[in-house]
Design goal:
By secondary structure, the chain is mainly beta. Helices cover 7% and strands 51% of the residues.
Length: 861
């Protein structure tokens, strides 16, 4: 009886605990929490149309004609709330919402925002001034005012950021000298699962689907796991509309240099907490041109995108589904020319025409201005479905985000088979992210959770560089923040595991078709393998805000990156680099340690920030050229497999690397002369390999010939001088027709890059392998610096009642039509032009961009 009594007591206690928990959650769910107040200008005028938005809840409210706003049915908790309106500085405050809560905002006029909200890598949204990790925002206004042909080029001038370009349609982000799998890209709140190890594989995100971008610089593995060792590029979509609104937009863009035509239509709305939206756009561009190359054959592309969102936002939180489809067809430039310097295109003739192909013929300007790429070209498709959820638990919340992604990359490079993909990588992936975000206890909050991914990839083409494989990754983390007066502390720890399984693969050496190992001509192209990697990441940082708007930040972070599939298992000629790559499944994970320190000020007339960093990476993975027995470069010429011919052999190995440098941002915005502003940035990164393994396996100092890493950007200086014209038309008849008008003049200056990565091993100008003179020249010649002058203008066209009917933006890049070659341009390795002696293919010349946006207000809310 005593045992039964004890069991009953135990069960009763559990029942009481359950009821207590249930009532706590129920009370939080049914409590009527709201946020309301007024939004006005410095002169107390009501700012109708301003948006009050809570990033963590993805909910906002529009300001009415009397200056009031109201957000109802909110989960209780402490949230970062931002208020924004075109032409005014964004205001960011922390608000504890519990019951009926009031918060008023007073905005001041400004064309460029000094303060930002950061959601990337934190436990919850936070003001950038309080975030110790170095972060840069690229705003929606910046994206509208500048001209670009893909989503990464649109953000590539942010301080500390650059891009490896492969024509005008494909760019890969680089943060502080590191790219590829060392930069993690996030879109719609989930990591992009694709083939990021490929040189020719860009980011499959529609630029029109991005409202703004956050770039987190330095090891950012705490919230995301492996592959964020250099940082994170977070491409953030437009927030759901405020309650009661139904809006749309028609947007068009024309660019003169490449004949780009881009048209987009979107529509969305929110009613009774149900939000929805849809976007469709299509882009066409022919070959771009410059003063040295004329039209650059096969840089043309076309891109179709569609996405949609459906969500519900209630007092218990929100749940939304987002689906997108990205389809890109783009040419591949090989840079081949005849003796007269004419660019060549491959042409196939059959026997009926009296000749056998393929052959090459000079391309005409009419062909270069076609919107359809020639063979060779690639087609890239990315399908993504994201299920994003947030559930209130007391004054905290549980976040659950899941995604399914399908990535397809096809390369058609045989003119005799124009519809056959020689290279075709096909992958399915799923990601998951479960975390608890706590309430705020006297300035302290934390988040804890697990996330990871599963990916299955296979090759459906006839040429393979990597084997079919499966990948599984899981990691757990805790991130905490504490704020006391002017001090903010942030830190956390994470552990990850990644498991690769490579599939054993035999092919017929003459047909390349999969065969049994015992078949005649069987060649063991890939050996099956299993690799498991584990690593710890950590971060600790602090921000202190002094009086007079001066602040200082310091952060120490250690990041983890597991090897990618190419580094583990490549075995074949990489079409993008024309070298034979060999992987090693026994590589160790990279581990970095980065120190960051920054000082800045957000003053009434001047804002600035100076950031310095040093990043040391152990077990740094790189491809090193192998040597033959006689000391010359190892050349793989023993196999007769089509497409896998003679090539220098490079094998992935490891050493140590160090990169250091910093960024500076200066923004002059005199309050007494609000019609003028200056915004300038400076970026610098230096360093490279410090140690490599010698023949005995010992770590020794890296020789100068291989010390420099590929695609470490040169120093860069940018400046924009902006003239805001609102005050000049304020008392004129145009005041009621034109708003937020501006003109600006700016420049980009890239310094010469003298520390050149030698793609091929060259001693005293004499190659030890079968290399062409132009390959030697491109590998050893410094890329010259260049100065580009840019112009811009724009504004809103309104009715006499103050309703915006159109927004117009004009941008002129490279006004002087300078012929230049950026160091980050992969076309710099293209063959020499026999007519001029110039190596490589140059970047785009003068380009005039006109953007027109027509807002559609079906219901104001």
């Amino acid at each position: 009886m005593l045992i039964i009594h004890n069991l009953q007591n135990k069960e009763m206690k559990n029942l009481y605990l359950f009821l207590f928990f249930y009532l706590t959650v129920l009370t939080a769910a049914v409590a009527q929490n709201s946020l309301s107040g007024k939004v006005s200008g410095a002169d107390s005028t009501s700012l109708e149309g301003a948006l009050v938005y809570i990033p963590d809840l993805k909910v906002g409210g529009v300001v009415h004609a009397d200056g009031t706003y109201s957000l109802n049915h909110l989960p209780a908790g402490n949230y970062t709330v931002e208020t924004r309106l075109v032409g005014y500085a964004r205001q960011i405050v922390s608000v504890n919402i519990n019951g009926v809560t009031t918060q008023n905002f007073v905005l001041t006029q400004a064309a460029i925002n000094k303060e930002e909200v950061v959601v990337t890598g934190n436990s919850k949204a936070i003001s950038s001034d309080l975030n110790p990790q170095p972060t840069t925002e690229v705003s929606s206004d910046y994206l509208n005012e500048h001209s670009a042909t893909n989503v990464i080029d649109a953000i590539a001038l942010a301080p500390g950021v650059s891009a490896i370009t492969d024509g005008q349609s494909i760019s890969k982000p680089v943060i502080r000298g590191l790219g590829y799998n060392r930069v993690l890209t996030i879109s719609d709140g989930v990591t992009m699962e694709d083939q990021a190890w490929f040189d020719e594989f860009g980011i499959e995100v529609d630029p029109d689907a991005v409202d703004r971008a956050e770039i987190l610089k330095g090891p950012a593995s705490l919230a995301y796991g492996s592959d964020a060792i250099a940082g994170v590029v977070n491409l953030i979509p437009e927030a759901p509309l405020a309650e009661g609104q139904i809006k749309g937009e028609i947007r068009s863009n024309y660019q003169s240099n490449n004949g780009l035509v881009k048209n987009m239509f979107k529509i969305g709305g929110t009613n009774s907490g149900i939000s929805w939206g849809a976007t469709i756009d299509y882009t066409l561009a022919h070959a771009y041109q410059n003063a040295y190359d004329g039209y650059v054959l096969n840089t043309q592309f076309n891109n179709f995108n569609v996405d949609g969102t459906l969500g519900i936002h209630k007092k218990w939180g929100y749940s939304q589904i987002h689906a997108s489809y990205f389809n890109l067809s783009t040419g591949i430039v090989d840079g081949s020319r005849d003796s007269l310097g004419n660019q060549l295109r491959p042409v196939y003739y059959d026997d009926l025409n009296g000749s056998v192909g393929p052959t090459e013929e000079p391309a005409t300007n009419q062909e270069a201005k076609s919107y359809t790429p020639f063979v060779i070209y690639q087609r890239i498709r990315h399908t993504k479905v994201v299920w994003d959820n947030s559930f209130a638990v007391g004054q905290g919340r549980i976040s659950a985000v899941f995604s399914f992604q399908r990535n397809q990359r096809q390369e058609i490079n045989d003119p005799t088979q124009p519809n056959t993909a020689d290279i075709y990588y096909y992958s399915n992936a799923a990601t998951y992210d479960l975390r608890y975000v706590s309430q705020n206890w006297s300035g302290f909050d934390f988040s804890a959770g697990i996330n990871g991914a599963y990916q299955a990839s296979q090759s459906l083409g006839t040429l393979m560089l990597i084997p079919n494989y499966n990948l599984f990754q899981i990691g757990g983390f805790v991130i905490g923040n504490y704020r006391y007066k002017g001090l903010t502390l942030s830190g956390g720890i994470r552990y990850d595991e990644r498991m690769f399984t490579g599939v054993d693969h035999w092919i017929d050496s003459t047909t390349q078709q999969p065969v049994d190992p015992s078949a005649p001509n069987a060649f063991h192209e890939f050996q099956g393998f299993k690799s498991k990697f584990g690593g710890v990441s950590g971060s600790i940082g602090a921000t202190y805000n002094f009086k007079h708007d001066v602040y200082i930040k310091a952060n120490l972070a250690s990041g983890f990156r597991a090897p990618n599939v190419a580094e583990c298992a490549a075995n074949g000629v990489h079409d993008g680099t024309v070298v034979w790559e060999l992987g090693d499944p026994n590589l160790k994970p990279e581990q970095s340690l980065e120190e960051d320190i920054a000082i800045g000020m957000n003053g009434r007339d001047v804002s600035f920030e100076v950031d310095a960093f040093n990043n040391s990476i152990n077990n740094f993975i790189f491809a090193q050229g192998l040597k033959a027995a006689d000391g010359t470069d190892s050349i793989n010429n023993t196999l007769t497999i089509a497409g896998l011919g003679d090539a220098p052999v490079f094998k992935y190995t490891q050493g140590s690397a160090e990169l250091y440098g910093g960024e500076a941002v200066l923004h002059i915005h005199p309050a007494a002369a609000s019609w003028i502003e200056l915004y300038s940035t400076f970026s610098m990164v230096m360093g490279g390999l410090t140690k490599v393994h010698d023949a005995t396996g010992a770590l020794v100092k890296a020789p100068d010939s291989i010390r420099v890493l590929p695609f470490v950007p040169p120093m860069r200086l940018t400046a924009d001088l902006r003239f805001n014209l609102n005050n000049f038309v304020k008392h004129s008849p145009m005041d009621k027709v034109i708003k937020n008008t501006f003109v600006k003049i700016g420049f980009t200056y890239c310094f010469q890059q003298n520390k050149v990565y030698q793609q091929y091993d060259v001693y005293n100008g004499i190659t030890q392998g079968a290399l062409t003179p132009e390959q030697i020249l491109a590998s050893t010649t410094a890329t010259k610096g260049y100065f580009l002058l840019n112009l811009g203008a724009g504004g809103d066209i309104q009715t006499h009642k103050g309703r915006t009917i159109a927004r117009l933006f004009l941008a002129v890049n490279n006004v002087a039509d300078i012929a230049y070659m950026d160091y980050m341009n992969r076309f710099k390795y293209a063959p020499v032009n026999p007519l001029t002696g110039r190596v490589g293919v140059f970047n785009m010349g003068r380009n005039v961009s006109i953007k027109l946006s027509i807002p559609l207000d079906f219901k104001k809310g």
